[in-house]
Amino acid sequence: METPDDRLPIVDLRNFAFDEAGAESIAREVDRIFSETGFCYLSNTGVPDELMVEIFEASKAFHAQPQADKEALAINAYHRGYMAPKTSLIVTSSVANVTKPNNSESLLIMHEVPEDDPRFGQDLQGPNQWPAKLPEFRETVTRYIDALETLARRFTQIIARALGLDPHALDHHFNRPTTFLRLLHYPPQPDAADDEFGSAPHTDYGFITILLQDNVGGLEVRRRGGGWIRAVPVPGTFVINVGDILSRWTNGRWQSTPHRVQNKNVVDRYSAPYFFDPDMAETITCLPACVPAGEAPRFEPVLYGDYLMERIDKNYQYRKSVSGGA
């Protein structure tokens, strides 16, 4: 039976922008949670409730289209577009021997890179794909992405405070952030076997993930001592978690916690994870504040783009037909 201890903590951002003492208190709370669990809910984020409703309406409209219309936007070499069910297998999972692909479908939208951008044509640098038959879709999604980027940048300042740094110490790593919005649909799997998942046990690759989930449930977070916590949907909140590169950046001080999704309900589940990561050209080196005096860092510096591409190339079937770059 679920007890209060099974619930993820809630971090209230209400006082962050207006109260220095409140900001420091939030930072200390985040440090404790990310050291122990790596996951929490965020409330009073400044993202309008009506925009949360609208992004789910847009996602449902996309996934309700005929399969042929969705597949017309099949994911391309820039890692943007539609991914059909059972086309991703998390072979880089460090927490499970995953043998079955994820039973979910999604539309992946990344940061927009126009043709006149010097990065255009490099790894993951290109335009998004938009559904032609849903004229309001792009505008809704763009407003949502803008709101989530604002929240992510705000939370990055909290992260810097939590690590004992100036609030703006990490900002320059995100001058051109690598971002992903994934509009996910999980079909019902009431009779799913123990090794059948909508999203198999894994950790996220990047910096932070900000997840909006509907009221169906199905997300579970692994405890450090074993067992799983149900991330029960809390209206008006997001779930935020530490990714692998942030854990590495903090020299392992913060946990990149395994999580999974099984939709054992008889209704569809929708979620919208937003991944906020550094510029692919940034080198990530363990922060000196996180390395004990007299000790060497646990991790070597890594170019984020190389780190990210290794994982994407291994986990997505379509990458096997991509010879590189775009």
From TrEMBL:
InterPro entries: DIOX_N (IPR026992), IPNS-like_FE2OG_OXY (IPR044861), IPNS-like_sf (IPR027443), Iron_ascorbate_oxido_reductase (IPR050231), Oxoglu/Fe-dep_dioxygenase_dom (IPR005123). It is an enzyme of class 1 (oxidoreductase). Its cofactor is Fe(2+). Pathway: Alkene biosynthesis; ethylene biosynthesis via 2-oxoglutarate. The keyword Metal-binding applies. It catalyses: L-arginine + 2-oxoglutarate + O2 = guanidine + L-glutamate 5-semialdehyde + succinate + CO2; 2-oxoglutarate + O2 + 2 H(+) = ethene + 3 CO2 + H2O. The keyword Iron applies. Residues 177-278 form the Fe2OG dioxygenase domain. It holds the Pfam family 2OG-FeII_Oxy. Keywords: Ethylene biosynthesis, Iron, Metal-binding, Oxidoreductase. Its EC number is 1.13.12.19, 1.14.20.7. Belongs to the iron/ascorbate-dependent oxidoreductase family. This is 2-oxoglutarate-dependent ethylene/succinate-forming enzyme.
